[in-house]
Task: structure prediction
Amino acid sequence: MWFQGISGQAGRGRITRGGNTAEGLTDRLDSAEREAGFHERDMSSFERERIDLEHRVTRMEAELESLRQRRLEAYARWWNARDDRDRARHVCRRLRRRIDRTRGRDNGE
Result:
């Protein structure tokens, strides 16, 4: 485990016999503090990246919502144009039939 050697028997066995126990602990403390500093810098970097990505995601979600709204509006315009076209075609068919009937009467049929 990462914490083995920090407390209890496991820590005492790592320092050589006859060595200065306080000095060995100080060295380990310095090493652990350096490592913590490295991780702290990494965490700061990762946090800046996370914040940047969060802002980008927010902007993209807003853009996506805008595009979805535009898509719905475009479909509504298409639907309305289709309805207008169908009405105009219906009027054309009725007028053609009327013209055909009128021509038939004029020709004596």
